[in-house]
Write a structure and sequence with these properties.
By secondary structure, this protein is α+β, with helices and mostly antiparallel strands. It has helices at 3-14, 59-64, 68-76; strands spanning 18-20, 23-27, 33-37, 40-47, 53-57, 81-84, 87-90, 93-97. The strands form two sheets. The protein has a five-stranded antiparallel sheet. A three-stranded antiparallel sheet has the order 6-7-8.
């Protein structure tokens, strides 16, 4: 995991706004963490009833920009993202073809 990804994950755990280079984490007044890459929303982070962090990737953004950086940031957040034979999948569900 890259240093910027470690810092991004730490910001989510600490529930604090953070920005570095092309990556930004912003928390709303309701506690929803929004993760941006180059200004594009790539994922949401929130805590469930038990206090565990739940990550919801933005599948539309991934389909539009399936770059190595986008995939790396999502994987660092714990998203089960795979690519096989040019097909990108999240949790086994095909998102797009590259």
């Amino acid at each position: 995991m890259r240093q910027i990804e470690k810092e991004m994950c730490a910001a989510i755990v600490d529930r604090r706004d953070w920005s570095k280079d092309n990556t930004r984490v912003h928390f709303t007044c309701t506690g929803l963490g929004r993760v941006y890459l180059h200004g594009n929303h790539i994922a949401d982070a929130h805590r469930n009833y038990y206090g565990s962090i739940v990550i919801t990737p933005n599948r539309d953004t991934l389909a539009q920009w399936p770059t190595p950086t986008t995939k790396s940031r999502l994987r660092a957040l714990g998203v089960n993202l795979t690519q096989k034979a040019g097909v990108i999948s999240i949790d086994g569900e095909a998102i797009c073809h590259v």
